[in-house]
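INFO  loader      accepted 1 record
INFO  loader      residues=105
INFO  predictor   begin
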Amino acid sequence: MALNKLQRIGIGCSILWIIGITPYYAKLELQTIEKVGAEQYAQCMNTPSARADFCNREDDIYKASFNDDQLVSNAAYHSLFQVAVAWLLGFGLLRLYRRMKGPRS
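INFO  predictor   done
INFO  writer      dumping tokens
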């Protein structure tokens, strides 16, 4: 099966999107996790009966529950979903365009 020029361009753009956006999403997710962890730690320390060793242990447990492989795989699935939606949208718009244009003369 031969691919036309637009399909080859689309495949190239999809690959570049996945390679480029996956690290961005992984970094964004890591920043969100760190922000939530910092908020939970601050909330723990602000309680009247707070003990630093307890809050530190809880913070360590929270941070250990996430690993880099999990973050990257979640980001990769997120970017793959976006590529699939873009392809479906592209094919749908192309079909709509051809239907509105009518048969070729």
